[in-house]
Amino acid sequence: MDGPILVTGGAGFIGSALVRHLLTRTARQVVNVDKLTYAGNLESLEPVLPSPRYAFEQLDISAAAELERVFRQRRPAAVVHLAAESHVDRSIDGSAEFIQTNIVGTYQLLEVTRAYWEGLPPADRDAFRFLHVSTDEVFGTLGQHGEFTERTAYRPRSPYSASKAASDHLVRAWYHTYGLPMLVTNCSNNYGPYQFPEKLIPLVILRAAAGEPVEIYGDGGHVRDWLYVDDHVRALLLVLERGTVGESYNIGARTERTNLQLAREICALLDELAPRGEPHADLIAFVGDRPGHDRRYAIDPSRLHEQLGWAPEESFHSGLRRTVRWYLENRTWCEHVASGYYRRARVAEISPQGDPEDRRRE
At a CB cut-off of 8 Å and minimum separation 6, what does 228 contact? Predict the structure, then answer.
């Protein structure tokens, strides 16, 4: 598979990690298509911006004419679709952007990609791939046991997850109806350097390091399955290069933590790496739960492991330590990305009583 890889959302968290990987560990050319919303930051790509194999196109994936120009001029051999509005809290406050980007934008991208793909020479058409990167949140919530598999029915419960589920269905429909050679991945919660600080792990790190309240929804018992972003990127490239067209692959590291456990682990690392005289865990405060808050996610990555030989290289302990250290050492980056629309605020108010037992009784 020769030719550039077109990455949508390449200035975002996962997208920038993918672009950095492609330009430092492969010989591939990369075309980064990003609207540069509040969560898109070209500073995340500074290490690779001088590369002659890198090209940037600032545009909205809903803009069909501009997309057509990019495909016509750049001639990609593959598309990795990461561009998305991705924060559940923000989708609750304002769902319109999520519908526009995640559904309408994906539709426009699919249509432009299909027209381009249909016009390729037969050999290039056979080699072309469209990889759609999605989330485990489309599956809804789990009980205390079990894991999401590729056969799990979709049960989205937030505007964000519903918009991602819709985009997944669109991609599969374009494969079954038009033959567009697609692959879909559904990943668990990512973490690592360069993540925008509205997400839980960087939010906890930055709030605790600043001596601010570390707000935990509900009783803190919501469970997430955590995946280091560089392990995710390796999985994406394996799926792109060796995955079976038309198939889905779940990506997860089987690293479950409750939100409260996670916050305490981060606080313990901060006690070691940036001591403040008092335990950082004293800053933990419980807040009212988020509407429609899924209780537990857990991914079964067996298909990815057995068929493509993928396994995570980073343990949760080592990955979390690397992440905490990175945020402590890159305060300037954090200040720059937080200086615009985002003010490190959560939807919920701090509970005046702050007791998880009280929250369970409500």
Answer: 190, 191, 192, 253, 312, 314, 316, 319
| 3-state DSSP assignment of residue 186 | strand
Evaluate whether 17 touches 233 at the Cβ level (below 8 Å). Answer: yes
The helix (run of H) or strand (run of E) holding residue 16 is helix 13-25
User: Of the residues 34, 60, 85, 137, which is catalytic?
Assistant: 137
34, 85, 136, 215: the active-site residue: 136
196 to 109, 202, 306: CA distances (angstroms): 25, 7, 33
Looking at the whole model, is its pTM more than 0.85? yes
User: Is 122 contained in some domain?
Assistant: yes
**Which domain CATH number covers 147?**
3.40.50.720
93 is catalytic: no
Helices (H), 215-281: 229-242, 259-273
- If pLDDT is split at 50, 70 and 90, which confidence band does 92 have? confident
Decide if 272 is catalytic: no
CA distances in angstroms from 301 to 28, 181, 239, 306, listed in the order given: 27, 22, 12, 9
Where are the strands (E) in the chain, listed by range? 5-8, 30-34, 54-58, 78-81, 129-135, 182-187, 189-191, 214-217, 223-228, 248-251, 256-258, 284-287
pLDDT tens digit string along 256-268?
Answer: 999 999 999 999 9
**What is the rounded average pLDDT of the residues 51-64?**
96
Q: What separation in angstroms does the CA of 56 have from each of 59, 82, 115, 248?
A: 10, 15, 22, 28
- Catalytic residue list contains 289: no
CA atoms of 2 and 221, how far apart (whole Å): 47
pLDDT band at 339 (very low <50, low <70, confident <90, very high): low
> How many independent structural domains does the chain possess?
1
Q: Which residues contact 332 (CB under 8 A, 6 or more apart)?
A: none
Domain interval for residue 46: 5-190+228-255+297-313
Give the contacts of 122 (CB within 8 A, at least 6 positions apart): none
Candidate list 160, 228, 249, 327, residue with the active-site label: 160
Cα dihedral 57, 61, 63, 66 in deg (nearest 10): 30
